[in-house]
Amino acid sequence: MSNLDLIIVGAGMAGLCAARTAVELGLNVLVLEKGIQAGGTTGLSDGIFNSCDPARQFPIDVHDSPEKHFLDILEYGHGKGHPELIKKYTYGATEALNWLEHIGFKFERSVTQEPGTLYPRSHKPIYGNGESYINFLLSHLNSLSCTISYGSNVVGFKKDDSQPLSVVFERGKNTIELTPRFGVILCAGGFCASNRLVSTNFNLLSGSEYLGSPLCDGGVLTSAMDIGAESVHMSYFELSVGDSAIEQLLLNPAEFILVNAEGRRFCREDLEFSSLCEAVLRQSGHCASILYFGSGNDSANRPQKIEDRFSNALAQYRKACEIKSDEAFGKNPFYLKKVGYVTKTAVLAPKIMASLGGLNVNEFANVLDRNRQPIKGLFAAGEIVGGIFGEACSFGDNLASAAVFARVAVREALKI
Ligand SMILES: Cc1cc2nc3c(=O)[nH]c(=O)nc-3n(C[C@H](O)[C@H](O)[C@H](O)COP(=O)(O)OP(=O)(O)OC[C@H]3O[C@@H](n4cnc5c(N)ncnc54)[C@H](O)[C@@H]3O)c2cc1C
User: Fold this and answer.
1) Which end of the chain is less crowded, N or C, counting CB atoms within 10 A of the terminal residue's CB?
2) Domain residues for 310?
3) In a shared domain, residues 305 and 279
4) Do both 374 and 345 map to the same domain?
5) Is residue 47 within 6 Å of ligand 1 at its C-beta?
6) Are residues 126 and 220 in the same domain?
């Protein structure tokens, strides 16, 4: 056995928060990172971090609480998220936020309200986006002499119930096996870079663009499953429009309709975002055209000439608005406002932002086997974990929950 206390797999938000927490506790830690640098999807993210925060919310008269955050997540995920995991996250988020600030990370002074949340509780780093967590945590880890081994691809685990768990990884031409004293924390991100895993679990997303790190391909997840870990919610994904200008067009369902390549409407446009995306993915080419009637922020909007194939759909929708009844799809009459001319057209092709499924864990970040028993010495945090959010996840909950469960995992590994 080596003199290593803990191995952490992956150097994104979860991995670096776990590493920093572990070195604060005086542990001898090795981080194995497949890439030539740290960051993963965290480094590409917008950096939004959700948490109740009385210090920022109270002065602006926002009366939020971990319980309200819990209920928001449960509802947004259609009741499918595991309540004990959501509770652990929402009741731990403020501690994680305070910890980051305590060690010197800087968030903006105000909070914002992201889609899917009922209260302004989203925090943004002052300097940059997701990469700012990585740069900050890395600089502190370097000065604390934590070892990060880049170009180290974890390919398997060795489990023998009488021995601590071992990690097998490839580095250059070498295959190395290490056995840490307290365990292994899996922080290798989601699996969306694997089109095979994505399409097996949700075939409508086959070939869809993934906005995160190409290194997050689910290899560690499947290796954990090879030693008996259970996966959960593998068909749930967080989707995105991938373009803020297009996102703006979709804000008010009264101001747009969606039409498919055949020129037909195919759903009510007041569906919530994940259902709207699913309806679009069911159309040929997995995309749809947006016909937008609003003026948005652009006072110079002019009538757009639309393609002939869309004329019928537009005429039928105008009629539905006149009689305040969308018989074809049942859009709420509240949104059936008088339609002027089309001011913009754009193509909506949903993209993948995150996987919401992954390893089944308990509230102590223990990875569970198929009998729902903890696998000794194996923990997980971040996007590799499934089951927290259910069918949908609000913007800003992934990073915060990665930080919370990373810290939980380290304490659980030490049983403190
Ligand atoms: C464009 C975009 C914007 C987003 N914005 C936000 C946001 O503002 N707020 C929010 O909460 N969420 C956001 N998300 C989601 C969020 O970024 C991720 O869920 C989160 O960063 C995951 O963190 P993580 O630490 O689990 O994984 P990652 O940050 O992806 O880190 C995983 C690491 O593991 C490494 N790894 C993978 N396989 C192996 C292996 N076999 N061996 C060794 N290492 C391995 C990877 O190289 C990577 O460095 C966004 C996602 C995208 C795509």
Assistant:
1) C
2) 242-349
3) yes
4) no
5) yes
6) yes
pLDDT (tens digit, 9 = 90+) per residue, 155-209? 999 998 888 999 999 999 999 999 999 999 999 999 999 999 999 999 999 999 9
Sequence-ordered list of residues with C-beta below 8 angstroms from that of 217, at least 6 positions apart, any chain: 191, 193, 194, 197
Distance CA 175, CA 195 (A): 26
Scan for tokens 């919530």, then name that residue: 272
What residue owns the CA closest to ligand 1's atom 49?
40
Decide if pLDDT at 298 tops 90: no
Which of 349, 377, 392 represents a domain boundary (last residue)? 349
Pocket of ligand 1 contains residue 388 by CB under 6 Å: no
Q: Please give the mean pLDDT across all residues of the chain.
A: 95
Asked if 193 and 214 touch (Cβ cutoff 8 Å), the reply is yes
Residue 89 sits in the same domain as residue 195 = yes
- Residue-wise pLDDT for 195-226, tens only, equals 999 999 999 999 999 999 999 999 999 999 99
Q: Which two tokens stand for residue 136?
A: 């900050």
Q: Indicate the number of domains in the chain.
A: 2
CB of 398 shorter than 6 A to ligand 1: yes
Contact 216, 235 (CB under 8 A): no
Give me the CATH number covering residue 20. Answer: 3.50.50.60
Atom 12, ligand 1: residue with shortest CA distance: 398
- pLDDT tens for each residue of 47-97: 999 999 999 999 999 999 999 999 999 999 999 999 999 999 999 999 999
Tell me the two tokens of residue 107: 């968030």
Boundary (domain end) residue, out of 295, 320, 349: 349
CATH for 273: 3.90.700.10
Q: Quick one: 22 and 141 in the same domain?
A: yes
Of 149, 146, 142, the closest CA to residue 26 belongs to: 146
The continuous run of DSSP H or E covering 258 comes out as strand 256-259
398 Cα nearest atom in ligand 1? 11
Q: What is Dmax (Cα atoms) for the chain?
A: 76
CA of 402 to the centre of ligand 1 (A): 9
Same domain, 194 and 269: no
Distance of alpha carbon 392 from alpha carbon 275, whole angstroms: 10
- Using DSSP bridges, classify how beta strands 183-186 and 6-9 pair: parallel, antiparallel or unpaired: parallel
Report whether pLDDT(2) > 70: no
Tokens for 311, please give them.
């004329």
Cα pseudo-dihedral 101, 404, 47, 250, rounded to 10: -130
Does 359 lie in the same domain as 344? no
E strand or H helix at 97? helix 83-102
Q: What is the sign of the dihedral through the CA atoms of 342, 343, 349 and 353?
A: negative
